[in-house]
Write a structure and sequence with these properties.
The complex is a heterodimer of chains A (330) and B (174). Chain A has 330 residues and is α/β, with parallel strands linked by helices. Chain A has helices at 2-13, 18-25, 29-32, 75-85, 94-99, 171-184, 229-240, 253-264, 278-282, 285-292; strands at residues 35-41, 47-50, 53-57, 63-64, 101-103, 109-119, 122-135, 152-153, 157-158, 161-165, 196-200, 208-209, 212-213, 221-225, 244-247, 268-274, 298-303, 310-316. Chain A has two domains: 2-135, Beta-Lactamase (2-Layer Sandwich), CATH 3.30.450; 148-316, P-loop containing nucleotide triphosphate hydrolases (Rossmann fold). In chain A, strand 3 and strand 4 (63-64) form a beta hairpin. Chain A starts with a helix and ends in a 14-residue tail after the last strand. In chain B, 87% of the residues lie in helices and 0% in strands. Chain B contains seven helices and no strands. Chain B is elongated, with a radius of gyration of 21 Å. Classes of the chains: A alpha/beta (330), B mainly alpha (174).
């Protein structure tokens, strides 16, 4: 497993300018397998996030907490890295740049910040790029295996489910694996597989690259990449006849409308949202509508108390009572 | 003895004629290659502005669709771009400058134009790329006109000069 993770890391640093990638290549294997983010900021030291801690990387590939020892990232490094990431083709990533990120082969995402230029139709371009944040995507196949039985609605359906967690606690990873499981078919339901429609607004779930999903999302899954949830819902319902629609990070009034559309069509929903408790949800106007209408039958709360993606509790959406969990659910 | 003289004489005329043709042909070759280059750049424009293919793929498509006499340079640029991690697009364009000067009979200004394409290629959004292509193609038209003029003027002259030189040398030797 570790070797695969090191391989992923080494593939990602191929996209970084030579000098920096040489340093990044020298860090110990133990860290290589666990790096979550590589951050490049113009004229500041090279920074990585690893196992919930952050380190600066020296020219020799040592990890340090001392910012003065870290290797300084130059403007040239950022430009070169940006060229490699965009495959020397800024024009091919116009839309992505407007959204502030580019998806790499393998589903890794690179966030971009710099001077934002507005045009008549909203953000037109980002110039003078000052920071790049490379988030290494590591799909964890099987993380939802034990979770899945709590969302099944016997005999042949699933409950509408909302996954709630603070950032960086594995929401999307769990959602992705749930999609994979549901699409593959479940032994609990005589191996019935569901047609799943995924609205992947931020290209995080499937990590589409040139029209090919970079993560395993199962054989019965259709992905609308980069589409907003409202348009995506209508498109999926009209033409793709899904049994389940999955979406990431709901929150706006438009999203609530989209969810109502989905329910009207008798399709089930799995979604994720930022937060840490039911009160959190109620305090947001759009989400409180959903909670009060008892739309979701299962709330799954995650945190990182026992590592990323720990299931804290699962709450029944009708009664708001916790469902007792078997030991060892993730 | 006469047979030897005849053979020698015809050899001289033949070689000087070939020399004249060689010099004359350079002009029509330049002209021809400039037209082929224009076609290639037009394909590249379509690939980028309408297809939005990433640069390496776009360059490969130009190589595939264009006339191989000229389009091979785009494949060379692509290979250099992908293998040399330090290089940018302009560097990759520069690597072929010397070669095309010799092989395609391009003049310095033709090469300059191609390099200026390398300077802007891929660095901005589609609208901007389209404008750049327009400028480059316009300049290429100007170069073609100039090449045509030069060809009309010089090609026949060099060819005639070759034959006449041969005859002149022959008369002097006789």
């Amino acid at each position: 497993m570790e070797e695969k993770d090191i391989g992923i890391y080494e593939n990602v640093i191929e996209y970084i300018s030579l000098e920096l990638s040489n340093a990044l290549n020298k860090i110990p294997d133990k860290y290589k397998a666990n790096v979550e983010e590589i951050r490049l900021r113009s004229s500041f030291p090279l920074n990585i996030y690893c196992m919930n801690k952050d380190f600066f990387v020296t020219r020799e590939g040592l990890l340090t907490k001392d910012k003065d020892k870290g290797m300084i990232v130059g403007k040239k490094d950022i430009m070169k890295t940006f060229q490699l990431i965009s495959n020397y083709s800024v024009y091919a990533f116009e839309e992505e740049i407007k959204n502030g990120f580019i998806t790499l082969k393998g589903g890794h995402r690179v966030g971009i910040s710099g001077k934002v230029l507005y045009g008549t139709g909203g953000i037109e371009n980002i110039k003078n790029i000052s920071s790049l944040n490379i988030r290494i995507a590591r799909e964890k196949i099987g993380v939802s295996n034990k979770l899945i039985k709590y969302i099944i609605d016997y005999p042949s359906s699933i409950h509408n489910t909302l996954i709630i967690s603070p950032p960086q606690c594995g929401k999307t990873t769990i959602l992705r694996d749930l999609i994979r499981n549901l699409s593959n078919g479940l032994s609990y339901l005589n191996n019935k597989g569901f047609k799943v429609g995924v609205i992947d607004e931020r290209s995080e779930i499937a990590g589409m690259y040139n029209g090919v999903p970079q993560h395993d999302i199962g054989p019965r899954t259709d992905v609308l990449d980069g589409c907003n949830k409202r348009d995506g819902t209508m498109m999926l319902l009209r033409a793709m006849s899904p049994e389940i629609i999955a979406m990431d990070e709901i929150g706006s009034i438009d999203d609530v409308e989209a969810i109502h559309e989905i329910l009207k069509a008798g399709v089930k929903i799995i979604a994720t949202v930022h937060g840490s408790s039911v009160e959190d949800l109620i305090s947001r106007r759009s989400l409180s509508i959903l909670v009060n209408e008892r739309i979701f039958k299962r709330y799954i709360f995650l945190d990182n108390s026992l590592g990323v993606g720990t299931v804290k509790k699962i709450i029944d959406g009708e009664t708001f009572n916790p469902i007792s969990l078997e030991k060892g659910v993730i | 003895m006469i047979a030897l003289k005849l053979i020698g004489g015809s050899l001289i005329i033949f070689s000087s004629t070939m020399l004249g043709f060689y010099y004359g042909n350079r002009y029509s070759k330049r002209m021809e290659n400039l037209i082929l280059l224009e076609n290639c750049i037009k394909i590249l424009e379509t690939e980028i502005v309408y297809g939005a293919y990433p640069l390496p793929e776009a360059l490969f498509n130009v190589y595939r669709k264009g006339n191989k006499k000229v389009s091979y340079i785009f494949e060379k640029i692509r290979v250099h771009l992908l293998t040399d991690k330090e290089a940018d697009v302009f560097n990759s364009f520069s690597t072929i400058a010397q070669e095309i000067k010799e092989k395609l009979n391009f003049k310095t200004e033709d090469i300059e134009l191609l390099l200026s394409l390398g300077r802007t290629l891929g660095s901005s959004d589609r609208k901007d790329q389209e404008k750049n292509f327009k400028i480059i193609l316009n300049q290429l038209q100007v170069l073609q006109k100039e090449a045509k003029k030069e060809r009309d003027k010089n090609e026949r002259m060099y060819k005639n000069l070759g034959i006449l030189m041969g005859i002149a040398i022959l008369i002097i030797l006789l």
